[in-house]
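Need a sequence for this fold. Nothing fancy.
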């Protein structure tokens, strides 16, 4: 028997060594390091280090975010995924420790002799313990001689950390999305007020043109043109009201509640832009962005899974100690102390005919590791790209807003001038209509630009890794 086990062990070691040599570890592609700074920004600190409670300066928005962090269904689901990952880690950690089971076996039928013909006391066949009546405890322990189980456990722990970073990623995206929708709502309120104001102006202009028609100073065509302009603006009013309803409902959805009115500030124009002066360095971003940290943990976990897959080619060792009451009949099994049975079984499991299966598993682990590496590199590139885009966009939007503010002021004067000239007979009704249309477009564009400024600052805050603390 010992010779047979030695032969099996020797063959398995040779096969495992041959397999490990033929399956080489793949070369990973190189990746260029991140730049030292974002364009010309070389701040030592980052706005992402500011807590979202201090970053946003609106009490209504802070209250909405607080509520969402406790009730958002997607975030709650992510917390449960963390519990799943934690349970998987506990399972991996438990595989390293021995297990203890209570065993009760009842023999039925004849007792078969030992196939190897061994004897006890030289006068009777050795009875297979499995076919005896046995009541007791048995432990099973796979000896982690090669470190395979430890690698699996460490990989599961890294998966747990990656899942926690995934929760942070959901949190920062949720905070940013709520802020964006909140600023959308404030901007839509201003747009609604702007449309209502222009409706009043156009109604007054329509009354004036009707009076002038009665006096013979205007034509029916002029009345129709002013009426068409007023109808178009009134239709915009209903469109904007619908946009406000949908934005409020979307916010309530993210808050995990049924539609209701959203409390908010009086005007977007009265809110200061969140703090945006320091962006830090790209290395700060790598340490704070949850998606980059998540990808890094997943990469390390994949590398450990590769090592564990390589060690599958090697034989595994297990020992099974047991203690209990053991005999051929139930009454005899409870006779002390003669029925007490104590033993230790050992086993070697060698992958002799499973080389293709193990090799396929190893190749799969390699591919998973490459995917994790590519995703890690992609997360870094995407993070840097987002920060650069937002920095440049903020500067350009400031210039755009300044120019549109000036444009709106000029067009408001143009409306007043056109109205006076028309009353005096020095301008046509088409010039008045054109001036009114252009000022409405300019006011809406200016509001939209300011809203985009708030969006971009929030996006920059998120891109730098802020919003999850």
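Here you go.
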């Amino acid at each position: 028997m010992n010779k047979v086990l030695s032969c099996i062990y020797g063959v398995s070691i040779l096969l495992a060594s041959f397999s490990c040599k033929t399956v080489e570890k793949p070369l990973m592609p190189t990746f260029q390091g991140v730049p030292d700074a974002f364009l010309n920004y070389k701040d030592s600190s980052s706005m992402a280090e500011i807590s979202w409670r201090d970053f946003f300066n609106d009490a209504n928005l802070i209250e909405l975010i607080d509520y969402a962090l406790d009730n958002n269904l997607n975030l709650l689901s992510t917390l449960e995924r963390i519990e799943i990952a934690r349970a998987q880690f506990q399972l991996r950690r438990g595989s390293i420790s021995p297990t203890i089971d209570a065993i009760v076996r009842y023999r039925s039928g004849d007792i078969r002799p030992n196939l190897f013909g061994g004897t006890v006391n030289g006068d009777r066949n050795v009875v297979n313990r499995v076919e005896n009546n046995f009541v007791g405890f048995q432990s099973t322990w796979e000896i982690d001689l090669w470190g395979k189980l430890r690698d699996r456990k460490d990989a599961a722990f890294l998966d747990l950390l990656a899942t926690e970073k995934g929760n942070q990623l959901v949190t920062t995206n949720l905070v940013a999305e709520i802020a964006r929708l909140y600023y959308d709502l404030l901007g839509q309120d201003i747009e609604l007020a702007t449309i209502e104001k222009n409706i009043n102006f156009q109604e007054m202009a329509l009354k004036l043109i009707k009076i002038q028609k009665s006096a013979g100073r205007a034509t029916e065509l002029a009345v129709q043109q002013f009426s068409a302009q007023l109808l178009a603006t009134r239709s915009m009013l209903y469109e904007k009201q619908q946009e406000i309803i949908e934005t409020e409902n979307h916010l309530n959805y993210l808050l995990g509640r049924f539609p209701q009115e959203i409390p908010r500030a009086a005007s977007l124009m009265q809110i200061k832009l969140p703090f945006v002066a320091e962006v830090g360095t790209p290395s700060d971003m790598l340490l704070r962005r949850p998606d980059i940290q998540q990808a890094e943990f997943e990469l390390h976990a994949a590398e450990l899974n590769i090592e564990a897959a390589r060690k599958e080619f090697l034989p595994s060792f297990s020992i099974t100690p047991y203690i209990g009451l053991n005999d051929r009949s139930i009454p005899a099994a409870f006779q002390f102390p003669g029925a007490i049975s104590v033993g230790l079984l050992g086993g070697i499991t060698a992958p002799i005919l499973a080389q293709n299966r193990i090799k396929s598993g190893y190749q799969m682990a390699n591919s998973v590791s490459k995917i994790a590496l590519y995703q890690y590199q992609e997360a870094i590139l995407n993070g840097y790209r987002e920060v650069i885009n937002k920095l440049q966009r903020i500067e350009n939007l400031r210039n755009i807003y300044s120019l549109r503010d000036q444009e709106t002021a000029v067009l408001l004067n143009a409306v007043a001038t056109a109205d006076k000239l028309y009353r005096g007979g020095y301008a046509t009704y088409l010039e008045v209509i054109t001036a009114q249309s252009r000022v409405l477009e300019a006011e809406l564009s200016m509001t939209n630009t300011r809203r985009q400024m708030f969006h971009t600052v929030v996006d920059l805050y998120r891109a730098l890794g802020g919003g999850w603390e």
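For context: Residues 1-5, 11-23, 110-130 have pLDDT under 50 and may be disordered.
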